[in-house]
Amino acid sequence: MTMKPLSGLRILEFDGLGPVTFAGMVLADLGADVLRLSRSADAGAPAFSEVGGAVLHRGRTAVGVNLKEPGDLAGVLELIGATDALIEGFRPGVMERLGLGPDVCAGRNARLVYGRITGWGQTGPMAREVGHDINYIALSGALHAMGEPDRPPRPPLNLVGDYGGGAMMLVTGVLAALLEVKATGRGRVVDAAMTDGSALLMSLFHALGARGLWSESRGANLLDGGAPFYRCYACRDGRFVAVGALEPQFYAALIAGLELEPETAAQFDLAGWPALHARLETVFATRDRDDWAAHFDETDACVTPVLTMAEAARHPHNAARGTFVERGVVQAAPAPRFDGTPAEPVAEAAATSLDEARSRWG
To answer: Is residue 162 among the annotated active site residues?
Structure first.
């Protein structure tokens, strides 16, 4: 069996919600040996336990601990001495009060990478305030850019703050610090804030704004639904297609497929965008979604059906790649792919005792 990229890496995950749970899943998917420390071996928020836990807790072993018990605390410190990295998502100061702050842990393991993820970060005037994804991306400027021009901003699920700007930045920071440990022999504390990460994700739009190519008005720009050739349209059956014909040659294929005259549909005539949008709305409403998908199949028009989650799992392309798997519940397979590593079944969540975990890493 070919080893996964993170095989042999040991990570302690302090059970939490949102980004730290997702980060633990990603690290386990990549081959790390992740122990998930919980108040009980089957702990987890109601949405994550039972069926939900089969996805978000997959690939890790839950270890039930009571960090207020001296014996359990000593056992966790013993595990920290044998781990490469830990990840936690508590509010600033919580781990310190538990006796597991970075200084204490570094005393047990000088090579330890200590990954911390919060909404506001470990420092700053709002560091200890509560919040959720929607609040963090509101403060970073990301949320204001999303939604329709005449409506309040629309939250993009919790993908931008919790996962893109949070969990994936935490994973990146932890892996970068682990590489540094190989050179220096010293660990690092990684401070991953969802405000910082979601702000970083907006880099392109800061650059466009500096050049006068991005407006603060929602729904008036190239990638926010303002462009008639980069947005979704309703079809006759009430379902939708996504159009992403950005480049001129792709736009030409779109216009040809819609049987419009190119001279009446100039791509970058911004003043004409509202009228062109209305024309495309009318045309797309004349046929069903899957009819349009078949019509544009194997063309360069960049038109695809907007699938539900259930439909996505059945789509021929996703099926051919094994993008989704079913292990009690349909879920996304690990990503990205690595050459030479065959697809393997997604490991299910498991549970063990603290004594067994200490023996395992002893």
So the answer is: yes
